[in-house]
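Aim 2 progress update. The chain analyzed this quarter is reproduced below.
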Amino acid sequence: MKVIGLISGTSTDGIDTALVDITGRGLESRLMLLRFATYPYPRALRGRLVRLTHDGRVEDLSRLNVYVGELFAKAAVRIAREAGIPLNEIDLIGSHGQTICHQPVPLKMGGLNIRSTLQIGEPSVIAERTGVTTVADFRPRDLAAGGEGAPLTPYLHYILFHNPLRPRLVVNIGGISNVTYLPRDSGLENVLAFDAGPGNMLIDGIVQDRTKGRRAMDRGGAMARRGRAHRRLLSELLRHPFLYQRPPKTTGRELFGRALIERVVLRAKVLRLNQWDLLATVTAFTARAIANAYERFILPRGGAVEVIVGGGGTRNPTLMQFIQEAFGGVPVFTFEKFDLDSRALEAMAFALFAYGTIQGEPNNVPSATGANRPVVMGKIVPGNNGRMVP
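Predicted structure tokens:
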């Protein structure tokens, strides 16, 4: 099948869009990336989405759900056109949407344990605008089965990187960083994966604060490269309770978004840090959080012979340098070493999940999410382009 995968991550910078040719079934699926692009969000929308995660009104939530769905539909149409493939030859769309709230820790309500997650980007709009059957809203089924609804990408990591002779650590750095441990000679049921802590979210937030919104990110790690990590502030950050919480665990803006950014900025003023040293410190924090996750929870299980890193964080050479330093003698590579696009993996994952959903194949990883069983994730909105999807 030719499948389009769509996702906007916690960085809320745009829509990652992958057009993928998929063959096989379940863990024997094979993927070939035909085209990838990121289509930026309108600048005003980014601010509205961030505000929505903190103090949005229900009217805003309702309207933005449809607006983001329209933008996702445009992204699907555009990637097909740019690839030179007629839209009626696309079999399927898998859309993660835009996460607004993720609350995997159970809260008692009426005597019931309630876990919740909310992604917007109305799939009915995507299916209607494109005519293509659309699968979306993947996380809630894992939550319903007792999991945390994340991380989900370990399913794809296993297909792409599992090696019976080489234990590997796969790291994805988006807004949040997550790790996947693939032991040698082991099945999917033995994969360990969890969120490690901040990825680009904290770095981007500090840049936006220090530049008063003139810059969205530390492009190429240039700002952090001019500074030096402040040992005291770094030590304080590394005492964050999430880093010591045992897996399964997931996180997002709730822990590493605006509230933490404001605290770090205030602390930097007290310590009289310039913006370069502050950026170096939070960049080092991201690297050390990943390494600490490895040392605390993975190394006791045997460790890895190599670290493979993907996601937007690979475009920050300063962060990648800090990661290699944090891992010492364990070599660190990017996905490109394996002829894969570091930026495309998450969008490819949601193309794969949609493909599995249509085939009735379980596509979560209970050992990573904490779910009590494998489940088929995703809700299906039929298309109207006349193509029958099995």
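The chain has 14 helices and twelve strands. The radius of gyration is 20 Å. These observations will guide the mutagenesis experiments scheduled for the next reporting period.
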